[in-house]
Every structure is written in C-alpha cells, then in structure tokens.
Amino acid sequence: MGRDLLSAAKKNWPDNIFLKSSEKSLSFKEADLFVSRLAEKLQSFGVTAGERIAFIPGFSIESVLLFFALIRAEAVPVLLNSRSSSRQVNDYLVRSGASVFITAKKGRVDLSEPVCKLCYLEDLFDHLQNAARLHAGSAAANAGLLLLFTSGTAGKPKGVFLDLNSLGLLAERSNKRSGFGENDCWILSLPFFHVGGLGILIRALVSGGAVFLPASNSAETLLSLIKAGAGNYISLVPEMLKRLIVLDHEKTVLKNLKCIMLGGAASDSGLLEQVLKNGLPVVTTYGMTETGSHVTALSLKEKGRHLETAGTPLEGIRIKIVDQEGCELSANQTGRIVVYADTLYYGLLSDDGSVIKRKEDFYKTNDRGSLDPDGYLRVDGRIDRVYISGGENVSCEYIEKMALEAGGIREAALIDVKDSKWGRSGVLFVVPDSASSFNVEHFQSALKAMLASYQYPQRIITIKTLPRTLAGKVDYECLKEQAGL
What we know:
Blueprint: H1 5-12, E1 17-20, E2 25-27, H2 28-44, E3 52-55, H3 61-72, E4 76-79, H4 86-96, E5 100-103, E6 117-120, H5 121-125, E7 145-150, E8 158-163, H6 164-178, E9 185-187, H7 195-205, E10 210-212, H8 219-227, E11 233-236, H9 238-247, E12 259-262, H10 269-278, E13 282-288, E14 293-297, E15 312-313, E16 318-322, E17 335-340, E18 347-349, E19 355-357, E20 362-371, E21 377-382, E22 386-389, E23 392-395, H11 396-406, E24 409-419, E25 423-432, H12 440-450, E26 459-462, H13 476-482
Parallel strand pairs: 1-10, 3-4, 3-5, 4-7, 5-6, 9-10, 9-11, 11-12, 12-13, 25-26
Antiparallel strand pairs: 1-2, 7-8, 8-18, 13-14, 14-15, 16-17, 17-20, 18-19, 20-21, 22-23, 24-25
C-alpha cells in the first residue's frame, strides 16, 4: 500500500482544520479517526482489499470521509459523475467490475435492476464504533488506486486509474507554484469525481491547509461564501468565473481571494480582459485526468501577465510539441501536446475490467498547442472529435452512437459550435427513417435519458441526407454551411 496521506497529515498538523462546511468542521486528527471507524465498518460489510467500490461523491464531508475510508480499507474507489444518467451509471458499474455501489437512500440514480450489490450511505454512517479495529489482511495489488471515467477519443468514456502517491507528489508541486499552505482554505467548487476537485483535497493533505465544502456549487452560493471569507483559494472553469464577475456588482468580492485557479476549458479574450480590468488573482492551468490534474500553471507573482497561456510546466514535468510523425517542433510551432512526468496515470481500464498499466513516461494528449520561447504553453484546441463544454469532454462520436440507439433515425452527425455560455456546444443533424412518422419529441426524450446533461446537443436539426465527401465520409464543413454556422 502507498503512503497514507491522511495519516501523514494527522501526524504533521493534528489540530489544523481539514474539512469545513457551514454546519461543522473536522481537524486532520478527527477526520483520521472517522476514516478509520468508517473503514472498519466497510470491512464489516464485507469490503475486501483490492475490491472496486463505486459511489457518486457529493459536496459533503461524509463523501470525503467515505473516499478516504475506502482507500484505508485498501479498496479501489470508483468515482462516478453525478450528472450521469441511470443507464450510464449501470454501464460504468459493469465496465469497472464494481462489486458494490454505495448510494444515498433517496439518491437520484434509479437502478431498478442493479448490476451489483447496493449499500446505503446512511447505513455506513449510522452508529460508527468508538474505536477502529481494521483487519490487517494481505496487501492488495491495487491498493492506493482509484478509478475515474473520462471521455476519450473513442465513443465511450475511458476508465483511468490514478494512484495516491503520484497525486500527492503532483499536489506538492502545485502548492509550490500556487503558494497554498497550512494557513489557507480552498473552497471545493468542483466535484471530486473530476481530478480538478480531487486535486483540491490532496493539496490540503500535503500542505496542512483546509477545504471548505459548500452546500452547492452554484455561482450565488460560491460568491456568498467568498464574501463571508469561507476560503481564500478557489478553482473555477471559465463559465463559472464569468457568472461570478457578473454577480460581483461592486467588483470587490473576488479580489478578496488569494488565488483563482482557472482551467477545464479555454478562456476567451473577453473574460481575460475582465480579469485584467478587475485585477483578479487568476492563475491559468492545463491538465486532464490522465495527468492527475494540472501540469502547467501560471504563478501569482506574474500578476496578470501571460494570461492568454496556460503557464509553464510544474517542477519535474516537461511539455513537448510534436508533429504528426512525433518529431519535436520549435518554439511557436503548433502540434500535438505531449506531457512527460513521473506523476501520470497508473493505467487504463481494459474491456475485460483488468488494469492496463502505463509503460511510457509520457502521455500523448489529443490537444493542439505551442510553446513560446519562454516555455509558456498555448492550447489551441482538440486534435480529435472531442470538444469541451463547461469543463466536460464531450465525444461527438459517442453522441452520434447514442442518437442512433434512441431510434427513429438512420443517420446522425454532430458538430460543435461556439457557445457564449459553455465555451462549446453540440448541434446534432439527424436523418429520420421516415420523415412522416418521425416523432421529434419522442426522440429528444429518449436521447436525454441516455446522456448526461452536458452531453445533450444545443440544437437538433432534421435533414433528408447527410452530405458526404468523395471518399464517403460525412462532410462536417458542409453541414456547418447548411446550418449557417
């Protein structure tokens, strides 16, 4: 088993507050005790080392404690997206090989035909023992790992295994760049089924800092918390920062923050102008699930300079830009972004549920970008047919596949367009089996049930046939022209 980050934090900063909410707070020492008690109860429920246990993390202290209890019990947490449909959750449970799905008794997900054992969160936290007696057991091969799902270039989300040791090392490097320390508090504005939110928890563990868990991550709630001084660090996607700037009528609340870490999607020039105009402490970043969180970042010392970039690589990390043949390009030349680091993902989930361990010390992303002569990274978009909407990767091919499964159509094609609210959004073109009998409302209802909210197209356009190239491929540029986009 890898190092226990919470146990180490308890030894280094026992009385420092680790988790805070509007209702309660826990020190590292208190959180560690709760985690041990909960880990023991998990074992009493039959959870064994190496077993994959799925749950949907919420913005609650209980969700955080459950995550670390699973780690301490040497299980493999499978963190699922709260915006997933019931069908998608079932698919994730099957693909991950999860033996247990922990959910609230009044959870949003309806698993009428569960594919694994169900365990209720309320039962786990009910009457926790006063003392923890963890079964030692034998060391599990996958102890210290967790599994996240993220959209890849293929049609279905990709399962990515991360290990806690690497996440801890990356968090230390991030803290060195951002200055986050034991006297600071990070508002958990991002769910921790994403590495953006998970990274916040890990950064607190390796620094002695605190994490504030809001009742919700709405713009109104976050602005109220910032105004009340609940925390001085926050991570945001560009769309949320835009909302907060609009809500901050006096243009003084956001200035109270020490750091606004911005990532998840490209920032438009209008937003960057607002950041500079209002003197906001924004630090742009670049990263993804496979890199364990951000691997480049600006420094607060740069005071607004280079905001159009994603900063420079963190300590111990290298970025290369390569052409189609894999040859390294010179400064200011655009190509594929390749990340070299000792903190990359542990492995990928195979079709049979096993772990395909990473062999290389680099990760070839599907992003285009360039490095300027000073090493600052500019990200110019995606190489594959994936776009980012509100910080979420959306696969065009996956949406097209689901549209066909929704029924009533014989062809589907999705293009992504600029969206002033989410950065990018989808426009779906469908060719009905029969124009006279095609029920648009029925199709829309079926498709919504199969997709997460961020995946659902902004518009659905019915056409007689899809334009194609001479090679027989769908002509997406022609579709854009037909739609006047």
